[in-house]
Amino acid sequence: MAVDGFTQMIDDSTAFFAELKENNSKAWFDPRKDHYNENIKKPAEFFADLMADDLSRMAGRAMKPKVFRIYRDVRFSKDKTPFKTHLHILWSPADAGPFDPVYFFGTEPGDMTVGFGLTEMKGPTLARFRAFVDHWGDDLQNAIAETGMEVSSWGAAPLKRVPKPYDPTHAHAELLKRKNLILHQKMDNSWRETEGGLLSAVRRRFEAAAPFRDLLDEKLSADR
Q1: Tens of pLDDT along 27-45?
Q2: Element (H, E) at 8
């Protein structure tokens, strides 16, 4: 079995978040805060830093990591449970332009996911993306297929109709409706046994996103 230093982090986080789901309160969390910080948060920050170095080499530009806080913002939510029951990490370019994609890793009990893509597009950026889809939709569809990932439903819902001035029967109508374009892939437990550990397995999946990233760089680089 291939084990790196982050296998224990995943095991600890899985057990911790499973219990937190059943006891999502300050009364339960506060006595266990040190355990969370030492066994989950700090290893996650180290993992994020190491992956940022790898992604910087892959992308050819500096990438900055972000480990999301465990505390939920409940101000405008009907759900007042105070803590998130997952670990999420994001990597984004230090000098991000509108078409610089981000990388994502998430784990919670029963689920581990990697993601990659453009999280939100508005105004001129969205208009430029639609023109890109109109002209290069076949290439984009092929690049998505090459990654082995699926288009994610995360984020803003697509439009119900193809936006004007594009033909409602456009070959890439579903892509034209989108306000973001995020790819994701579920990870099974093969990373524990055959992929050299978590860091290597996640890196390999991010490397597989290269056809999509390279197409964005080639066709939309003027917007960086």
Answers
A1: 999 999 999 999 999 999 9
A2: helix 7-22
Nearest CA among 130, 134, 117, 215 for reference residue 177:
130
**Order of strands, sheet of 87-93, starting from the edge strand that comes earlier in the sequence:** 63-67, 87-93, 102-108, 111-118, 181-186, 150-151
State which CATH number among 2.20.25, 3.30.930, 3.40.50, 1.10.3470 fits the domain covering 7-223.
Answer: 3.30.930
Amino acid (1-letter code) at residue 182:
I
Question: How far is residue 93's CA from residue 59's CA, in Å, rounded to a whole number?
Answer: 9
Q: Where are the domains of the chain?
A: 7-223
Q: Which amino acid would we find at residue 116?
A: F
What is Dmax (Cα atoms) for the chain?
Answer: 59
| pTM assigned to the model | 0.91
Q: Retrieve residue 42's tokens.
A: 């700090």
Identity at 158, one-letter amino acid code: P
pLDDT tens by residue, 176-188? 999 999 999 999 9
